[in-house]
Structures are given as structure tokens and as C-alpha cells.
Amino acid sequence: PRQARLRYPQSGELRPHDFRGGHRRTPRQRLSYDPGRQTRFGDVFQMKEEVYLRPLTVEDAAVSWRWRNDADLWRFTASRPNIVVNEEIERTWAANAIADSSRFNFAICLRPSNRYIGNVYLVNIKDGVGELGIFIGEKDCYGKGYAQAAISLLKKAAVDRGIRTIRIGVN
């Protein structure tokens, strides 16, 4: 294939570009995120400008209790609810999760509507290590890169709070 040398905006480094297969990105480039920087990988980084995290609140239970009862959402997770969850049960869970000092809980929201679409959190935080949990509850938001954007933002928040290692389990 024809090769060209292109300068990547993030690092100023020259990297090969394959005209048939698109961009070849290093792992560092896939995981880096700077919301103020314009890059040539527009779709991924523009998507991240739509997504923001805010602390989870008890009031979020008015939306999230529906997600707890959606069997499709929990099909691939290890922590399925074993009861039918109503709004009051979800409010109690949210209050306890917010009060737990061994976890950080964030709501995943979209700009400009401020729509709440899911949760991302770090649990079992101890000695600079936390375990990642994430779900997108709104099905029309699947496959749009919102979870990836939320994880990038969570990593930034984790570093700001002294967390050096994030673990994730896969089911």
C-alpha cells in the first residue's frame, strides 16, 4: 500500500498512514484525552465534548430505577439485581453508594440537554487502586462512544484523587 508520513497533532510526531486502512494509532493516542485540543480524529474527540460526568445524586434514582429492571442491560454483568427494584429501593441504594467513602459515583450526562444516560464508578478504593464499573442505561445511546468518553473522564478524575491503578473485570 502507499505510505505517507503525517504529523499527528497530539505529539507532533510523524507516523505512517495507510491510505487503504485509515489511521494507525498507538495505544497512547487511543487513550489520550485533552478536551481543549482540536485533533484530526474528530469523531472520537468531538464525542467526548458532548459527554460530561457529575456526582451521582439521590434524585437520579427517578431515572435509574428503570435500568435496574431491564434484563437486557444486566445480561452481561455480574451484579444483577435479584429483586424488582422500585424508585424507593433505588433511592436507598444511591444514598448508601454516595455515603460510601470507598467509592466514587458519577452520572454520565450529555450536553447540551444535560440528559442522564448512565453511571460510571470506582469501587473498593484502597491504597490508590480502584475497580471500574460502568453502564449506559439508555439504549438509544449504545454504540456512540459515550462509555469510552466517560471512562476517559473518570481516569482523569481518578488521577486527581490520587488513584494510580484502575482495575476492571470482564464477564
Features:
single chain, 171 residues, alpha+beta, five-stranded mixed β-sheet, three-stranded antiparallel β-sheet, 27% strand, disordered N terminus
Plain-language structure description:
Strand 6 (115-126) and strand 7 form a beta hairpin. It is globular and about 35 Å long. The longest helix is centred in the last third of the chain and has 15 residues, at 146-160. With 171 residues, the chain is α+β, with helices and mostly antiparallel strands. It has helices spanning 27-31, 42-50, 61-68, 71-74, 87-99, 146-160; strands at 3-7, 14-18, 22-23, 51-55, 104-110, 115-126, 129-136, 165-167. The termini are far apart.
Q: Which sequence of SSEs, written as H and E, runs from N to C?
A: EEEHHEHHHEEEHE
Low-confidence stretches: 1-47
Helix and strand composition category = alpha+beta
Global mean pLDDT: 76
Helix content, binned percent: 25-40%
SS strand fraction: 25-35%
Q: Count of DSSP E strands?
A: 8
In which order are the strands of the major sheet placed?
A: 4-5-6-7-8
How many angstroms does the end-to-end distance come to?
39 Å
Shape: globular
Computed CA radius of gyration, to the nearest angstrom: 19 Å
User: Biggest β-sheet, characterized?
Assistant: 5 strands, mixed
Helix count, per DSSP?
6
